[in-house]
Design brief:
171 residues, alpha/beta, Glutaredoxin, five-stranded mixed sheet, two-stranded parallel ribbon
Length: 171
């Protein structure tokens, strides 16, 4: 078995074991609540971020992983949105579903190598479940009052422009 087939097999096995799939396009996550479930997670600098502490701001929450190719495709799109709106009360939180020993160190390297400008948080396994995430990337748009007003799953061409239109309507 050549190296690429072996790598593909390992990734597929990992995805099957984790129960979270990585797809180009999947059905949007089903969260039945109007209000976004609150959470507190640590970022890569060990600072704690609480969603409810961001009330009054438009918040985009994306669940993703470094091993997910469609997730990596969303990074430049989210960076564009972050640069465009960071000074206007918009927050982007990338919640990594990566696991294993040394995940903080490898995530720091990944964030640096991919020039991710927005905060990256480490999921504690509970937050993805709160949001009923079954496929990644999974993105939630939360308005200033803490209500989920948009959700999408998978990578979508032109994501930055679509999100910009949604954000403008919320500001």
């Amino acid at each position: 078995m050549d190296c690429m087939k072996r790598l593909c097999l390992v990734v597929c096995l990992f995805v099957a074991l984790c129960g979270v799939s990585c797809k180009k396009s999947v059905s949007p996550p089903a969260v039945d609540k109007d209000t976004a479930p609150d959470f507190t997670l640590s970022d890569l600098h060990n600072d704690r971020i609480t969603l409810s502490g961001l009330r009054g701001k438009v918040v985009l929450v994306e669940f993703w992983a470094t091993w997910c190719p469609p997730c990596r495709e969303t990074i430049p799109e989210l960076n564009k949105v972050y640069m465009r709106y960071k000074d206007r009360g918009v927050v982007i939180l990338g919640i990594s579903l990566d696991k294993g020993g040394g995940v903080s160190s490898s995530l720091n390297s990944f964030v640096r190598d991919h020039a991710i400008g927005y905060p990256v948080l480490l999921d504690d396994k509970d937050v993805a479940a709160l949001y009923d995430v079954s496929g990644i990337p999974a993105l939630f748009v939360i308005d200033k009052s803490g209500k989920i007003v948009g959700r999408r799953a998978g990578y979508v061409e032109g994501l930055a422009e679509t999100l910009s239109q949604e954000i403008e309507a919320l500001l």
